Amino acid sequence: MKKFVNLVDIGFVGYGNANHAYGGYLLAYSMNNVCGQEWFNSFQDIILDFIGKRYLPIYRMADGEFDFLFGPVFNYRKKHFLKDLAVYIKKWIRFYSLGFETSWGENYSLTQILQLRKKLISDLQQISTQGYLALYFNKNGHFELNTLNKTLEKRFQAINCPLTQNNYVPFHFVCNLLMQRRYLEFFSNKNILLVSGFTSEDREKIKRNLSVLTPKNLEFINTSKTHSMLDSIELEKLHVKPDIAFVAAGVGSANIISQLSRLNCPCIDIGGLMKSFISPSFTYHGNVFGFPGTIKL
C-alpha cells in the first residue's frame, strides 16, 4: 500500500521560478498533507540545529543515482514517446555493455557497478537511518522521471531502506537550504569543509566568492572526478573540525558522506550547486538555483 499519496506544491524553491522552469508545476510526494513552505522551513531548522554538533547526512538522488541503483528506467512521456524510447534504448545498451557514465564525468564498468551497488545500498541504509534521502519524487509539467514515481516506494523497501516522512525530503529542498530564509547561517562564522573534484584555481575562486558570506574557515578535500564511489577520504589532514560539510561527488557522494560520519556535523550533498561557489553567475536546474542568497546574479 502506497504511503506517499499527497502532492505538495514546492514551486517556491530557489528564485521562486520553479513552477515555470518545470513546465507549470512542481509537486513533491509526501506522506502527509502539509504546506510545502512549512515542510521546508522545518527541514532547514533541523539541519541548522545540528551544525557543529552531530552527524546528519543528506544525499540527493535523481536520474543518475536511480539508474546506477536500479538500472536504466524508461521515462514515459506521451508527447515525447519516440524520443524517450530512443534515449532509453541507447542508455540501456550502453549500461549493459560499456557501463555507467554521468554528464558530470563519473564512469564505471558493468563489473564495478554490480560490486558498488552493494556499497551504495549499505550507504543508503546508513544515511536513511541517520539523516535524509532527498529524492526526485515529484510530478512536474515536463513529466521527468514520472514512470519511476509508481514504483519508488517498493524499490526502496526491497533494498531494506523504507522511506518515511522522517528520512525523506524532496530533492529540491537541499539546494534551497542555501538559497532562502536562514541560508546565511550555513556560512557566517562557520568552519566549512568542501569536498569535490577541485582544481587549485577552483579553490582560490571559492575562497574569494564565499568571503561575502563571512565563513570563519574553509578547508578542502579533493575527490576523483570519475570514480568517487571508489574514493577513500583522509580526514586526518584537516586542520580545523568543520561545523558543516558540503559535498559534490556525483553518485559517489553517498560513499563520501558515509566516511565523514566521525566529523559530527551535517554532511550535505549539494551536487552541481558547488559550481556556483566557483562561478557566482552559474545557475542550476533550469535557472532555479544559484549562488547562495535570494538575489539572482
Walk me through the structure.
The structure is a single chain. With 297 residues, the chain is α/β, with parallel strands linked by helices. It has eleven helices and twelve strands. Helix 10 links the parallel strand 11 and strand 12. Helix 5 packs across helix 10 (253-259). It is globular and about 50 Å long. The protein starts with 5 loop residues before the first strand and ends in a 19-residue tail after the last helix.
Straight-line N-to-C gap = 45 Å
- What is the helix fraction of residues, given as a range? 25-40%
Strand order of the largest sheet: 8-6-3-12-11-9-10
Overall 3D form: globular
Encode the helix/strand succession as letters. EHEHEHHEEHEEHHEHEHEEHEH
Please tell me how large the radius of gyration is.
18 Å
Mind summarizing the main beta sheet? 7 strands, parallel
This entry's quaternary arrangement is: single chain
Unreliable stretches (pLDDT < 50, length at least 5) are none
Mean pLDDT: 91
Structural class computed from helices and strand pairing: alpha/beta
User: Given the structure, what is the number of helices?
Assistant: 11
Task: Please count the beta strands (DSSP E, at least 2 residues each).
Answer: 12
Strand-residue fraction?
15-25%
Secondary-structure topology with pairs:
Layout: E1 6-9, H1 18-21, E2 26-30, H2 36-50, E3 56-61, H3 63-70, H4 81-95, E4 100-101, E5 107-108, H5 110-130, E6 132-135, E7 138-140, H6 146-149, H7 152-158, E8 168-170, H8 172-176, E9 191-196, H9 200-210, E10 217-222, E11 244-248, H10 253-259, E12 266-269, H11 274-278
